[in-house]
Amino acid sequence: MTGAGIRFVLLLTVLLHLAFAGIRVTLSLFALHLQASTLAVGVLISLLAAVPLLFAVGWGRTIDRIGVRLPLLIGAGAVLGALLLVAALPRLEALFVASALAGSGFMLVHICVNQAAGLLGTPEDRARNFSLLALAFSTSGFLGPVISGFAIDFVGHRLTFVLLATSVVAGIALLLWRPIRLPSHPAPAEGAAPRRLGDLFRIRNLRRAFVASAALSMAWDLFTFVTPIHGTRLGLSASTIGLILGCFGAAIFAVRLVLPLVVHRLREWPLLIGGMVATGTAMAVFPLIGSAPLLMAVAFVIGLAIGGTQPMIMSVLYNTAPPGRGGEVVGVRTFLLNLTQAGMPLLFGAVGASLGMTPVFWTMAGVLLAGALFVSRR
Fold it and tell me: How far apart are CA 370 and CA 212, in angstroms?
């Protein structure tokens, strides 16, 4: 049942995340097609993360209490509603509503599939489960934008939203008719103290994992946002910049493809600390390089380091979470991820505009190395 359960979660993740990954691309391209300004597109995409961060922790607690099945249906329904809204009302105002709705819905899906992966099997299975889940996210994260791009060229923006909606409908159908029951998190002990968010940050290993997760998420956002700007200033062509980012994405996929096969031989904390140090070092070197092949090589190293750490973070979080609070812990991590996704591009853009790209990369390198020092403290 455990093997069938994790396969069910992986298939569900691919179906629902494929649609969400496609939404990110299609929303921005449709907004530009409707003559929206660059600022409007930036606000549109930031809503995907800004609105959900307000509810992430609360929904995590709710998922701990009621299980994952109903929240999964609600989240998938919200994503479906966002897609159909834009298909029915192809106006810029509808895009903003759809962005907030899709981001909030997928936030629920994200917490639920992580909760399910953490509860299937024994604690020793968690690192492998989260490695497989990360691979599923990478697969759908690649397929969603590619499918959307080709669909826009062949059938237009509105029908692309409809096409993405079919993937969500398939996921909802799977949830309604698949007989596999997703587990609930163990309940807290009788007479346990009231839940306080601050209590989670008092747990040493949770605090260390949250710091590592936030720092690596910031690095991911920085690299994908700033690399096109940095490459343009170096005079690189769009195709070359695309290849640099492609090397980063290929490395993430490659390490997540291999990780489930070797994760049982690895220890979480040394891998996390090593990944932060490697990413920080590569970030410090990256702005000093002017050669495209070397930039691709460093981008590949950054992708390996960041891609290999995410499953380990989730394993540590679940192994350290208090009884009955696994969903809440994932909600806190989701809050931190959405906070960086919503705010970091604005901060990086402002600093880069005034000081250039090199200080931005070096600041991020300093944050990663300082974070690695904090995480390594016993």
Answer: 10
DSSP at 266? -
For 324-347, the pLDDT digits (tens) are 777 788 788 878 877 777 766 666
Both structure tokens of 330: 């994932």
Question: Is the pLDDT score of 349 beyond 70?
Answer: no
d(CA 207, CA 152): 43
Distance CA 146, CA 49 (A): 22
CB 34 within 8 A of CB 157: no
- CA angle, 326 then 331 then 337, to 5°: 130
- Give, for 66, the enclosing helix (H) or strand (E): helix 56-66
pLDDT tens digits along 247-263: 888 888 888 888 877 76
Taking a C-beta distance cutoff of 8 angstroms, is the pair 164, 22 a contact? yes
SS3 content of the chain, % helix, strand, coil (to 5): 85, 0, 15
Residue 39 one-letter amino acid:
L
- Distance in angstroms (rounded) separating the CA atoms of residues 143 and 2: 27
In whole angstroms, how large is the CA radius of gyration of the chain?
20
- pTM more than 0.70: yes
Domain ranges across the chain: 2-177, 198-376
pLDDT at 348 over 70: no
- Do the domains 2-177 and 198-376 sit in the same CATH topology, yes or no? yes
Angle, helices 204-233 vs 357-376, to 10°: value is 160
CA 111 to CA 332: how far, in whole Å? Answer: 10
Q: What number does CATH give the domain 2-177?
A: 1.20.1250.20
* Residue 228 vs residue 74, higher pLDDT: 74
Long-range contacts of 196-199 (CB under 8 A, 24+ apart): 197/57, 197/328, 197/332, 199/322
Answer whether 50's CB lies under 8 Å from 337's CB. no
Classified by CATH at the fold level, domain 198-376 comes out as Growth Hormone; Chain: A; (1.20.1250)
Contacts within 8 Å (CB) and 24+ apart, 301-304: 301/251, 302/219, 302/223, 302/248, 302/251, 302/278, 303/247, 303/248, 303/249, 303/250, 303/251, 303/252, 303/254, 303/255, 304/251, 304/252, 304/254, 304/255, 304/278
